[in-house]
Amino acid sequence: GGKDRRSGLILTIPLCLEQTSMDELSVTLDYLLSIPSEKCKARGFTVIVDGRKSQWNVVKTVVLMLQNVVPAEVSLVCVVKPDEFWDKKVTHFCFWKEKDRLGFEVILVSANKLTRYIEPCQLTEDFGGSLTYDHMDWLNKRLVFEKFTKESTSLLDELALINNGSDKGMQQEKERSGDLNFLPSVDPETVLQTGHELLSELQQRRFNGSDGGVSWSPMDDELLAQPQVMKLLDSLREQYTRYQEVCRQRSKRTQLEEIQQKVMQVVNWLEGPGSEQLRTQWGIGDSIRASQALQQKHEEIESQHSEWFAVYVELNQQIAALLNAGDEEDLVELKALQQQLSDVCYRQASQLEFRQNLLQAALEFHSVAQDLSQQLDGLLGMLCVDVAPADGASIQQTLKLLEEKLKSVDLGLQGLREKGQSLLDQISNQASWAYGKDVTIENKENVDHIQGVMEDMQLRKQRCEDMVDVRRLKMLQMVQLFKCEEDAAQAVEWLSELLDALLKTHIRLGDDAQETKVLLEKHRKFVDVAQSTYDYGRQLLQATVVLCQSLRCTSRSSGDTLPRLNRMWKQFTITSEERVHRLETAVAFHSSAEKILQECPEQPEAFNEMEQFDEIETVGKSLLDRLTVPVVYPDGSEQYFGSPSDMASAAEHIREKMKLVSLKKQQLRQPDATTPES
After folding, report:
1. CB count, 10 Å around CB of 46?
2. Strands of 45-50's sheet, edge to edge?
3. Please, which residues have CB within 8 angstroms of residue 551's CB and are 6 or more apart in sequence?
4. b/e map of 177-212 (b: 16 or more CB within 10 Å)?
5. pLDDT given at position 415
6. What 3-state class would DSSP assign to 638?
7. pLDDT by residue (tens digit) across 135-144?
8. pLDDT tens digits along 214-233
9. Would residue 516 count as lying in a domain?
10. Total number of domains constituting the chain
11. Looking at the domain assignment, is residue 42 inside a domain?
12. Is residue 34 in some structural domain?
């Protein structure tokens, strides 16, 4: 970095005690002399050969070598000698005498006298100067510079080759021959970073001091390195920017090609194996289990499609991103790919959804058909069991249950028709995604199956309805039969109650003829009511006979009810006749007694015949005797009218009236007894 008084560069050659290789020294000198610019070289060099630690013959050889290496550039050679060591030998070889032959001046000088030729500020401390110099630092910087120069120059060539090849529209086959041919041998970012660090270091040393802040001027090689580094950096940045654009374009093209390849893979699979899978699945099954098996198979197909649909979603996102940041020339191609992919995927998804809906509708149809079939089986089983109810209420309950089951079957058949029609409508639309395949035969089998199921259910339902009509009629007749039997039993009960009322409450015989006649008239009406009850019971029992014949069954109660009815009616008629006889006797008694008791005593001629009194007495006694006699029935049982006190009261009233008649008779006899005495 030092300079002589002519502004020539100073070259220092330190020699050591070890053997010095002249070849290595020659190569080193060639390298060092190649660093300065031609302008610097024109000013010449001052060479300092430090021989203080070396031998004279080595120094001499080095000086002579300078003649061969740099004769034109060297202007002065200063050989630094050791103190009092080479004095005797100098006389044997004087370099100043050889100036013309060597081409440069050679002087022997001690280190402390070197400042006579070179300024102290241009000498290092080794020679008593003040120039700051760190050889290892210079060497490291030089190695960095050499490395940067080599790498950047090679990188520039590679980038230029890549960029120029891209600009000239190189064939894609060459571009695809290998990614290694497209990538530079070194990382451009690393080289640029190294160059910036080197330039920063060079620029910093130009303005700042080193080792304590002593200001110093940079060496010419460093000044020369700065513009070289800056020029290389500018070229690198330019080529790297172009390279980045080339990479971006290539990456975009590669990405576009990859997307196109993936799109075609998705499209080819969906239109190929995917569509073929759907074309082979056209059946709907003939039962719930068959439909479920088809649904499971369809789920497997959907699972395979889902993987490709996931790829479609990813591709669609990538295409959308490219569309947002893409160039004008790529928009048309990207939109075409996106449209093609979307059309195929949506069409295939629609087919899958249609198939899934069709299978679900078929499953619902078969489920409703199975439920309806079970309902019909239950109804048929109920109709096949003979009816043996205990009473009319159970028949009504059974009939209600039968009607409910029939109504449930009607609703089930209506639901089956709705499901079937919906399924038929979907099947009729199946040709819209058949891809040209004739599905008429397959659809006809499905349609025939659906219509066959609905027709079969309709026939079964019709047969059950016919059987229900017959069963309903039979059950209604049975209800009527039980009703007749119940009403007939009720008629017996009513007749029994009438008989009981006749015996317990119809006991009065009346206080006079008029009252007795009224009681007799009421009794006849009472008998009419009983007669109507008996006739009603007889009619009901006759109806039970007809119903039993129609139902071909025997009544459990009619055979017992008719004898009871006849027996009760017989007892009632006997009791009624007894009551009529007593009332008629009472009427005769009261009428005769009242006639006698009401006739005037001044007409004795009316009582000429005493037999009338005797007749009244006879009738009265007969009535009294009859009141004490019970009613005897054909089975030997006996019943009395009222209680003994009631009969005693009625008898007492008759006796009183008989006393009045007897008194009247005595009064009439007294005049007849006094007439002869007079």
Report:
1. 25
2. 9-14, 45-50, 74-80, 105-109
3. 474, 477, 478, 481
4. eeeeebebeeebeebbebbeebbebbeebeeeeeee
5. 92
6. strand
7. 787 788 878 8
8. 444 555 555 567 788 888 88
9. yes
10. 3
11. yes
12. yes
